[in-house]
Design a protein that fits this description.
Length: 633
């Protein structure tokens, strides 16, 4: 080849290379621009999918309105939940492209994640998304939809101190009206018949049935299986009785103010849960069930399935499954037999009433019963009442510390005046107890004037300090509602006098007074325990109870049974009983109404009985306490 030929060839090759390079650069620039436009289309799609509205998304294959309607249909079975959608991996190749969508659905307690692929099409200078159900889930065919089925976790049991379930799944029957089986007029007529037979508000139930959908099941009531008549109105059209199991205590109302109950989540609970709880979920309502609901409820499982198109013979296919995790049991110290005994004894007491039993050796709360007169309120551990003469156990400790022994003499006049206010003993106070008597006799017969007259011997703060040594008046966090009472500094001599006999502004709960009795029996300030797993350190008393003081108080409480107002307990079999009766005036009536109290110890058991309105501690609360100790033996 000649030099000229080689030159011409070189120039041609050089031109060709230049052209190729230039073309490659132009193509690269073109691809970058296309990709930016494609990414804008995908970003618009992502926003529309999250919002559930594809109106502003550039689409091909369907109008935005058609695509939005199909999107709504596809995801309706997942519930009222907005997905998290992340777009990535946008690529273009000529007039086509693809993108990847990463989905995350928070469905109850579970998160379902999956990935789908989106096809893209060029439309001139713009790019469009090729719409189909596969945009949402890659395996979907036309007409198929998604459905999420919650797998309900088994709720944790509430256990007694011996590990026996208190609240556990028990058989029930749900009664209601199945509107899918009858017409609207018949449904309302049957609803009234069923409501009247069940003793519920007929008008309200008829209205609920009328407002429900044409194929709805409307529940009227849930009854324990042993209380339900499965043949109830069996001939009434549309009446349905559905066997089920729900978490229940052994009997209706068993420790209900303490334990709470399990039922459908209220609107307030749903709102406060930040999406963790949905309408219709079973949750704890009140008491321990509410406070420890997150642990008891466990974690629901999840199944996500593809529902075949209407008319298809195909079976639903599973896309995702997560097992439920059962709730953790909640251990308590309650004794089922003692709780049942206490509730049985209070069942016929008209006024508000409570009975609390504590095991002094370890503080275990064995029974915390509320009578029907409390109206469902937790008087047993959280009531706030003047303790009356049961508080004389505290005052006796203060007097012991002031140097007055059980055999020392104190004055017990028929009445005593403090700053113009006259204090007297109770109406049937024994005449033989008037005059110069020992502290032991004053406690046994419950002489008000002896304690009031000794108030001057007590330094400031002595009552509050003695109360703290017996577990009264010191707040403790026990993991459940518990009121430990108050012994405020008195405002004047009259209130100081009243406080020595548990009046004035002195307050206590039955739990607090059972704690006082337990502390005397154990010789230290007992910290009551309902939840063994909830550890709490007792707030130390400034001047702890000593062994000698405890022995003296045990002697004084024993004298109440052998020689005083607690003689009705003297014949009980078993270990010796120590006690203290109490009557406390309240209200503005003339004569004033009175609370009736009695506390007692026997062996490793300390008990407080309270009746909001009664004649006296010995005649109103005493027989209840005697029956409890006899039954507990």
């Amino acid at each position: 080849m000649t030099g000229g030929a080689r030159g011409r060839t070189a120039r041609v090759l050089a031109g060709t290379v230049a052209t190729v390079v230039a073309g490659s650069l132009l193509a690269a620039c073109s691809d970058d621009g296309d990709r930016e436009e494609a990414e804008r289309a995908v970003a618009s799609l992502r926003e529309g999918l999250v919002a559930g509205d594809l109106t502003d998304v550039p689409l091909t294959g369907a109008t935005p309105e058609e695509a939005t309607a199909e999107l709504e249909a596809v995801v309706a079975g997942l519930g009222d939940v907005d997905p998290e959608v992340t777009a990535s991996g946008v690529t273009v190749d000529g007039d086509t492209g693809t993108a990847t969508l990463d989905w995350a659905w928070q469905l109850g307690d579970q998160t379902w994640t999956h990935t789908s692929t989106v096809a893209l099409r060029s439309a001139g200078d713009d790019w469009q998304v090729a719409w189909s159900p596969t945009v949402v889930e890659s395996s979907l065919a036309e007409g198929e939809t998604l459905r999420a089925d919650a797998v309900t976790a088994v709720r944790g049991d509430v256990l007694a101190g011996d590990g026996t379930p208190i609240v556990t799944l028990r058989d029930v029957v749900r009664f209601g009206i199945d509107k899918s089986r009858i017409d609207a007029a018949t449904a309302q007529a049957s609803a009234r018949t069923l409501a009247e037979a069940l003793g519920i508000d007929a008008d309200a139930f008829v209205q609920r049935v009328a407002a429900a959908g044409d194929r709805a099941y409307v529940e009227a009531i849930v009854l324990r299986a042993d209380e339900a008549d499965l043949n109830l109105l069996g001939g009434t059209p549309g009446v349905a009785s559905i066997p089920d199991q729900v978490p229940l205590a052994p009997t209706r109302g068993f420790a209900a103010p303490i334990l709470g109950s399990v039922g459908e989540a209220t609107a307030e609970i749903v709102e406060e849960s930040d999406g963790a709880i949905r309408a219709g979920d079973a949750v704890g309502l009140g008491g321990l069930q509410r406070r420890y609901d997150a642990d008891l409820r466990g974690t629901d499982g999840l199944r996500v399935v593809v529902v075949p198109a209407e008319g298809s013979d195909a079976e639903p296919r599973e896309l995702h499954a997560a097992d439920a995790v059962a709730g953790a049991p909640l251990e308590t110290s309650l004794d089922i037999d003692l709780q049942g005994l206490a509730e049985g004894l209070l069942a016929d007491v008209g006024p508000a009433s409570a009975l609390v039993a504590v095991r002094p050796s370890d503080g275990a709360l064995l029974a915390a019963a509320n009578g029907p007169g409390t109206g469902g309120q937790n008087a047993a551990t959280f009531g706030q009442y003047a303790p009356g003469s049961t508080f004389k156990v505290v005052t006796s400790l203060a007097l012991l510390r002031a140097g007055i022994g059980p055999d020392d003499t104190v004055a017990c006049p028929a009445q005593i005046t403090v700053d113009g206010r006259v204090f007297e003993n109770y109406d049937d106070y024994p005449a033989a107890g008037i005059g110069e008597i020992t502290l032991r006799q004053a406690v046994a017969s419950s002489c008000n004037t002896a304690f009031i007259g000794s108030a001057d011997a007590l330094p400031d703060g002595a009552l509050a300090e003695a109360a703290a040594a017996l577990g009264l008046g010191v707040d403790q966090d026990l993991g459940f509602p518990a009121y430990f009472g108050q012994v405020p500094a008195p405002e004047g001599a009259t209130e100081a006098a009243a406080e020595t006999i548990g009046q004035g502004r002195v307050l206590a709960s039955p739990l607090a007074m059972a704690t006082v009795a337990a502390s005397v029996a154990e010789g230290r300030a007992v910290l009551p325990t309902l939840l063994p797993e909830h550890t709490a350190d007792a707030v130390p008393a400034g001047a702890p109870l000593t062994a000698d003081e405890a022995a003296a108080l045990q002697d004084l409480m024993r004298a109440v049974v052998t020689d005083g107002s607690g003689r009705l307990l003297a014949e009980l079999p078993g270990a010796p009983v120590g006690a203290k009766t109490g009557t406390a005036e309240f209200g503005t009536a003339t004569p004033p109404a009175t609370h009736a109290w009695m506390i007692a110890t026997q062996g490793d058991l300390a008990v407080a009985v309270f009746v909001e309105e009664g004649a006296s501690g010995s005649t109103t609360a005493g027989p209840l306490l005697r029956s409890f100790l006899a039954g507990a033996a």
